Amino acid sequence: MDLAQRIAAGDLRALARAATYIENRDARGEEVLRSLEAGGVREPLVLGVTGSPGAGKSTLVDRVARAYRQAGRTVAIVAVDPSSATSGGALLGDRIRMQSGLGDPGLFVRSMATRGAHGGLAAATANLVRLFGAAGRDVVIVETVGVGQAEVDVARLAQVTLVVLVPGMGDDVQAIKAGIMEIADVFVINKADHAGADQVENEVRAVLAMNDRAGPPPEIVRTVATRGEGVPELLEAIGRAPRRSRTFAPARGHAIDHLGIAVESIEAALAFYRDQLGMTVASRETVEVENVHVAMLPAGESRIELLEPASPGSVIAKFLEKRGPGLHHVALRVPDLAAAVERLRAGGARLLNEPRKGAGGHEYVFVHPASTGGVLLELIQDAQ
Ligand code: ZN
């Protein structure tokens, strides 16, 4: 049996090995993913859990995992610690925790410390979530330590993000509100038997009241994780949260990010797309390096990108001259751009540029139509 077959048969050591391949960006990881996903994948419930150190996240995650196990659902936990490369603290904690899960093949725990670039961590985490989903886990819990951007990246992977707070945080609620308030689907006030639980809840409500995020406000649930109190209520709140609409889709696998259309004039094109079709313009900007004016119009989870030459020397001007207005490129989001570029190079694909940062700070690379079946293909790094 190959690795994918062993994983499909429930072999946990095979699963652990595939996870190591993914963390190390070994091509065998992507191979296993592809063969596991070939037969179709049932989407797992992906939970993100974040909050500052000392909030009791690990204990809470344990309790939540056990509650799902009691309900007959299989669980994988990914503990992401961008700071533990030097301290090793969180990893040690997870080893202890992993042992509490020993003997239960329905609970799989994986710790991941950062190595190298932060974007690489997000990509590796995204692929681990894919792996556990493809391996048939019903619930995948991704736990991070409170460090800002990494949490926002992780929230993109999750259908439901829990932000864990504790009484006595004081100004910390204010400190974490930037970014975190937007990603929270459920606020958990853990250690709710301590004095100050009301105060934390009031602070959260005050911050939420100032926030103009769309949709229903996140629920607030109180727990005492050490005793399992509030955990059933938390699971119910989680169950309600996936049903609420989300502003972004979970990042997994490949997705069409946008279609680039070359036009003589964005204004003239908007008379059709905006005024007649009723689409909205999310952003307009000039990308200097490409010499092009850009308008982005959201279309579900992808977008239409209108491209107008900013000068006669622009590639879009040349395209219009040769081919006339029309579809200029298809942009595909990929889980790991660096790995994709490496594979394309090895396979002899014709890349038109080194990966570089474009509009919105996303890294991208263009692949020549000669390699892609006749369409200019833009590859974009997902969740970075
Ligand atoms: Zn584009």
Q: Could you explain the architecture of this structure?
A:
This protein is of the alpha/beta class. The protein folds into three domains: about 1-40, no CATH class; about 40-245, 3-Layer(aba) Sandwich (Rossmann fold); about 255-380, 2,3-Dihydroxybiphenyl 1,2-Dioxygenase, domain 1 (Roll), CATH 3.10.180. About 40% of the residues lie in helices and about 25% in strands. It has helices at about 5-10, 10-25, 25-35, 55-70, 85, 90-100, 120-135, 150-155, 170-185, 195-210, 230-240, 265-275, 315-325, 335-345, 370; strands spanning about 45-50, 75-80, 105-115, 140-145, 160-165, 185-190, 220, 255-260, 285, 290-300, 300-310, 325-335, 355, 365, 375-380. The strands form two sheets. An eight-stranded mixed sheet has the order 9-10-11-8-12-15-14-13. Strand 10 (about 290-300) and strand 11 form a beta hairpin. The longest helix has 17 residues, at about 120-135. It is globular, with a radius of gyration of 23 Å. The two termini are about 35 Å apart. The structure holds zinc ion.
Would you kindly provide a brief summary of this structure?
The chain is an alpha/beta fold and 384 residues long. It has helices spanning 3-8, 12-23, 27-37, 57-70, 84-87, 89-100, 118-134, 149-157, 172-183, 197-210, 231-240, 266-276, 315-323, 337-346, 369-372; strands spanning 45-50, 75-81, 107-113, 139-144, 160-165, 186-189, 219-222, 255-262, 283-287, 292-299, 302-309, 326-334, 356-357, 363-367, 377-381.
